[in-house]
Amino acid sequence: MKKVFLAVFGMLLLLGLVLLMQRDERGPAIDAPAYRTFLSPGDGGFKVTVQWRHTPWSWLTDRLVMGFPGSASDRPAMVYLYDTRSGKILHHAPAEMLQMVDKVFWSSNRVEVMLLVEWELPP
């Protein structure tokens, strides 16, 4: 009886480890929903989008680490500059946390994501 119990326990433990170690197949971060979007003033020809970023260890931390209320914006982020007319990504940059990207300043030929990056806009 003891051997059967140990065998069943071992199989369940092995199954749990296999499920835990399974790679996350959600795809690249570009497929993640936007956390925030900032449209350029005027015609809205450009937009800055902030999305959470997959990290090499997110397949493990998403399964093991329980988040506390309000900590979702602590996730690593990726900031993208899009040309809304063509839908192409013009630039991208990583950010330590989603909540760091809260101010975007636009001029006629530049966009600045406060404390993170400044990009030239195409004509």
Describe the secondary-structure layout.
Layout lengths: L1 H20 L12 E6 L6 E7 L5 H7 L12 E7 L4 E8 L8 E3 L3 E4 L3 E4 L3
Antiparallel strand pairs: 1-2, 2-3, 3-4, 5-6, 6-7
Helix content: 10-25%
Radius of gyration, in Å, reads 21 Å
State the total count of DSSP E strands: 7
Largest sheet geometry: 4 strands, antiparallel
Question: Helices and strands, in N-to-C order?
Answer: HEEHEEEEE
Structural class: alpha+beta
**Head-to-tail CA distance between termini:** 77 Å
Low-confidence residue ranges = 23-30
Structural shape: elongated
The average pLDDT score comes to 80
Quaternary state of the chains: single chain
Q: What is the spatial order of strands in the main beta sheet?
A: 1-2-3-4
Strand content: 25-35%
Total individual domains: 1
Count of helical regions? 2
